[in-house]
Design a protein that fits this description.
3 helices, 21% helix, 148 residues, Immunoglobulin-like, flat, alpha+beta
Length: 148
């Protein structure tokens, strides 16, 4: 019985050491708690990946993105400017169109129906009043299905 207790204590110690050495905190993964205001928040960042190759080969543009120091949520208006941590949404403009569409889902951007050839998508990170904070343009080529 004593050997069993020693073995269990040893396994618990090894597990604790391994877990604490490689574990990240919840804040490391999901960001700051939405329940506590953040003084002097760092500037928001936007990272947009190029279109996923497989859907693009079929003419569908799927672009994943992420934000830092800003949560993408469907909340708009001047009153939302004081929310901490900061919130906002994205504006998406395809091929310099004179209009854009707004997305507040935080999910993959999907654009379909583009003709084969070069295109670009402007992704803008905006505050709840639609003021653009930062942006990124992604250029790509939709392949011609007749000439793979």
């Amino acid at each position: 019985m004593l050997d069993l207790l020693k073995d269990l204590a040893f396994m618990a110690a090894v597990t604790l050491i391994a877990t604490s050495a490689s574990a990240q905190t919840a804040k490391d993964i999901v960001g700051p708690s939405p329940l506590v205001a953040i003084d002097h928040e760092p500037a928001p960042k936007l990272v947009v990946d190029p279109p996923l190759p497989e859907p693009l080969s079929r003419g569908a543009v799927f672009m994943q993105y992420r934000t830092e120091n800003l949560r993408v949520v469907p909340v708009f208006g001047k009153g939302a400017l004081d929310v901490s941590p900061r919130i906002g949404h994205i504006h998406i403009t395809v091929d310099d169109a004179p209009w854009h569409f707004v997305d507040a889902s935080g999910e993959t951007i999907i654009v379909v129906g583009l003709k084969p050839g070069p295109h670009q998508v402007l992704v803008e990170l905006a505050d709840p009043t639609h003021k653009v904070i930062t942006s990124q343009t992604v250029k790509f080529v939709v392949p011609d299905p007749a000439n793979p």
